[in-house]
Amino acid sequence: MTQTTGPEHALALGTRTRAGAYRLDLATQHWWWSDEVYAIHGFAPHEVVPTTELLLAHKHPEDRDRTVAALDEASRTGAAFACVHRIVDARGRERVVSVVGEGRGSSAYGGPAELVGYFVDVTDVVADRAQAAATVSIAAAAQSRSVIDQAVGVVAFVEEVDAGAAFLVLRAASNDANVPIRVLARAIVGALPTLRHDPGRVRHFLDGLLAPGHRPTTADA
């Protein structure tokens, strides 16, 4: 995704990033990379001669066309830009980088004379955020499973069946009402305090809640 923004935005990502500067002379297509840009691409400083062809060769195949379009637009207009995409470095490792920059000077053809900016390796930041999102999802799933397990226990006790049969009762009621099992489970577990765990009252509540055609609402929960 390309958007107009300044280099400072990408450099404000914290300490788990590595950033290096670049400069591209648009007339000669000569690139200059700082040592950090070589490192981001898996090279030792000055191990290779940076070229547009080399740069594009390391772009992830699925992101290459988008990167070319961003580079072409920036070369033509000189407007500040940012493009986040994947690369495959010289060691075969996939990295996520943000390239930011802007045009400087003016050429005889009316466009900028050069592009200057930064490569920012945001791989660790992306991984951290993905891990955090996964942790939240796992926690939410565990919480839902806990409520479901409690509901299964209630149904098993009241109906005098084993846990497997109790789960099938919940699943059948879920399918009939077209609501997730966790919604039924929350309704059952949430009602227990008001029912004072009295087996007769719980049975009456379950008979109504699990009856065909009944659709649990927030009031049930």
The average pLDDT is: 78
CATH architecture of the largest domain: 2-Layer Sandwich
Strand adjacency order, main sheet: 1-4-5-6-2-3
Instruction: Report the β-strand fraction as a percent range.
Output: 15-25%
Shape: rod-shaped
Low confidence ranges: 1-15, 215-221
Helix content: 40-55%
Q: Total number of helical segments? A: 8
The CATH class designation of the largest domain is: Alpha Beta
What is the H level of CATH, i.e. the homologous superfamily of the largest domain? PAS domain
* Rg (C-alpha, Å): 29 Å
Give me the strand/helix succession: EHEEHHHEEEHHHH
End-to-end Cα distance? 42 Å
Structural class by SSE content: alpha+beta
Number of strands: 6
CATH fold call of the largest domain: Beta-Lactamase
Domain count: 2
Give a short account of the largest sheet: 6 strands, antiparallel
SSE layout and pairings?
Elements: E1 2-3, H1 7-11, E2 18-25, E3 30-33, H2 35-40, H3 52-57, H4 64-77, E4 81-88, E5 94-104, E6 114-121, H5 123-159, H6 163-177, H7 181-195, H8 199-209
Antiparallel strand pairs: 1-4, 2-3, 2-6, 4-5, 5-6
Helix pairs in contact: 5-6, 5-7, 5-8, 6-7, 7-8
